[in-house]
Amino acid sequence: MLKYIVKRIFIFIPTLIAISLITFIIGINAPGDPVETILTKQQGEGQSVKGLVDESAYLSLRHKLGLDLPLFYLSITNATASDTLYHIAKTDVRENLKHIAFIYGNWPDVAKYYTSIKQFEDKLNSIKTDSAIADKLISAKTVVNSLYINYDQDKITGLFNKLDNVISKSNSSLQLLTPNLVALKSAEKNIIDNQSPYRKYIPVMHWYGFRNQYHHWLVSFLRGDFGLSYQDMRPVGPIIWDAMKWTMGISFISILLAYFIAIPIGVKAAVNKGSKREKLTTSGLFMLYSLPNFWIATLLIIFFCGGDWFSWFPAPGAAPIPSDAPFMYHITQGLYRLILPLICWTYTSLAFISRQMRGGMLNVIGQDYIRTAKAKGLSENVVIWKHAFRNSLLPVITLFANVFPLLLSGSVVIEQIFSIPGMGQISYNALLANDYPVVFADVMFAALLTLLGTLVADILYAMADPRISFTKATA
To answer: Would 365 be classed as within a structural domain?
Structure first.
């Protein structure tokens, strides 16, 4: 068994790497610019809008987040692409330059064109604004921003004509831009004159080594550093741990309750198959299963949390337990406040688990060795609980492998209704806010728990049925 466990753990490694790659690819292709998102939240919507964030702050935060590194260890592309394109901060500008290089096949000239735009922009920003040229400066800056994201030659020519018009009809301060505009036009002309479109058909591999975004993200995750939240720049780790304590505690108790209640019900249902008691129990459980948990949660709050009925439990969002309260008071009050959420968390599982247990028991009690045990005169309890029970657990153990990840993911609906700051609520709020580091940390933990659940299920198989030997199967 130990050999099998070690082997399965080694199999986890490529599986987790594959999951991490998928998660990383989704992350880098997620909509929006995380740097602009964070700066916008820090500076306020009115002061920081797209394209107007402070460039030094943008570059500094981009470096802090590791976004100024290449994406992966290597890239397989064609001879038109640059191996240093990742240095350009803005995604839309980077993609535009990549597209121009692909069309004309001469990256060095494209790079000079980009440098010319930057020089023109820097010169434009150095001109002091006054009322006479304010409108023309705004118009010129708008045109420059359009040059960064346009690759169509006709559109670029039209933008150059607009700049010509602004400069020629202005006073001497804006006419200082004439040499830069000439250099910009010349750089764009060189791209067309020196084009080598055949280079797009030449495959090229660029090697970046370990200093890349994926390696930085994966190693940081393994160290417990899950990045920074886009909402408040807090480390994701403490956010996850604080929420995980609530979700894992409630989920663990709920799973134990569900199994301890549903398994005996399933066994009794199989033994008493066809009886009125069995039919009544099964029908009642399936009625519970069909009731939405958010509806039951709402009813429980209305009837038992004050209002016109009973005030047996504190309402969601009630004052927290005082931090200076005795330890046992924390424990008893915490459990007391979790009674209603646990009911909503647990009741829907009872029908499904008991049904699986009933099916497994029915498959076993018809076996020859069960009939032999009965023929020996053993009592019904001994036959059922000693001889049949262990072998009927396999479907329930299989189900446990799927339930295991719920220790982390929790229930979004129940946590929202009862104001529980668990993983479900944290993940839901993170999705609404496009806070991808929190979402992806949750995804990675869920994947890890799924793998662990499968391993635990395999171990429980061998414990429940001695005929299952993973050591022999893998020898």
So the answer is: yes
User: Can you tell me whether residue 449 is helix, strand or coil?
Assistant: helix
Q: Which long-range contacts (C-beta less than 8 Å, at least 24 apart) are formed by 81-90? A: 81/107, 81/204, 81/206, 82/107, 82/111, 83/206, 83/208, 88/114, 89/35, 89/58, 89/59, 89/62, 90/33, 90/148
Residue 13 domain-assigned?
no
Q: How many domains does the chain have?
A: 2
Residues 249 and 147 occupy one common structural domain: no
* DSSP-derived secondary structure for 384-440: IIIIITGGGGHHHHHHHHHHTTHHHH--HHHHHHTT--SHHHHHHHHHHTT-HHHHH
**Average pLDDT in the chain:** 83
* Average pLDDT of the segment spanning 96-122: 94
- φ, ψ of residue 207 in degrees (nearest 5): -105, 125
98 and 138 in a single domain? The answer is yes
pLDDT over threshold 50, residue 13: yes
Please indicate, yes or no, whether residues 163 and 282 belong to a single structural domain of this protein.
no
Residue with tokens 């434009």: 124
At 310, which CATH number?
1.10.3720.10
CA pair distance 473, 467, nearest whole angstrom: 11
DSSP 8-state symbol, 383:
I
Is 346 within 8 Å of 254 (Cβ atoms)?
yes
Residues 345 and 407: beta-carbon distance below 8 Å: no
Residue 213: inside a domain, yes or no? no
**Claim to verify: residue 298 and residue 242 sit in the same structural domain:** yes
CA distance 6 to 16: 16
Note down the domain range covering 198.
Answer: 74-207
Local confidence band at 160 (pLDDT 50, 70, 90 cut-offs): very high
Whose tokens are 């993940």? That residue is 427
Residues 151 and 250 in one domain: no
Q: What CA–CA distance (Å, rounded) separates 318 from 291? A: 26
Name the CA radius of gyration of the chain, rounded. 32
pLDDT at 184: 93
Give, as one character, the DSSP assignment of residue 272.
T
Task: Report how far residue 397's alpha carbon sits from residue 390's, in angstroms, rounded to the nearest whole number.
Answer: 11
Assess whether 186 and 259 both reside in one domain: no
Q: Domain boundary residue among 207, 225, 250?
A: 207
- Which pTM was predicted? 0.74
Q: How far apart are CA 74 and CA 236, in angstroms?
A: 28
Confidence of residue 51 (pLDDT cuts 50, 70, 90): very low
Q: Which residue has the higher pLDDT, 265 or 449?
A: 265
Domain end among 154, 186, 207:
207
Q: Residue 76, SS3?
A: strand
CA 260 to chain centre: 33
In a domain, 362, yes or no: yes
